[in-house]
Amino acid sequence: MSSALTSVKSFLADLLLWAFFVGGLAAGGAAGAVLDGTRKDVVTYGGSVVALLAGSRIAAKPRIRAFLSRPGTLWFLFLFNGVTAVVLYVVLGGVDGIIAAAAMGLVSLGAAGGLVGGRRRRTQEAAPRGRAARTTPGA
Question: Rounded to whole angstroms, how far apart are CA atoms 33 and 114?
Fold first, then answer.
């Protein structure tokens, strides 16, 4: 009984977290279509902060973290966000284009950092095994 209750609580917590994430994205992106002036700015920035906080909590989950640390996923994020940064800079132009391109460029650089860190980690893990195999007596 306790296991079922724990599973239900975990499911509801995940559902609420995803709802905050999607709601924050919707508020941040669609506030301009509904509101004007200062209220629009407050809802846009508030929604962006809520989505950022919820997204960081979602990314910390073990299954999501494992998916995001795979080399294929990191390559996709690096290339997609890099190209998107260039396109946003060209299409939007001005200060808006620079801000959007910088934000997407940071995401792309973060994925590149994950690729470099993962490669170093794999190299360091493989090196001791290779040396041990060569120094074994009788080999």
Answer: 36
Q: Return the DSSP state at 139.
A: -
What pTM did the predictor assign? 0.63
pLDDT band for position 128 (50/70/90)?
A: low
Q: Report the 10 Å Cβ neighbour count for 3.
A: 7
CB 86 within 8 Å of CB 101: yes
Contact 24, 52 (CB under 8 A): yes
Spatial contact of 108 and 77, defined as CB atoms under 8 Å apart? yes
88 and 104 Cβ atoms separated by less than 8 Å? yes
Cβ neighbours of residue 97 closer than 8 Å, sequence gap 6 or more: 88, 89, 90, 91
Give the other-Cβ count within 10 Å of 82's Cβ. 18
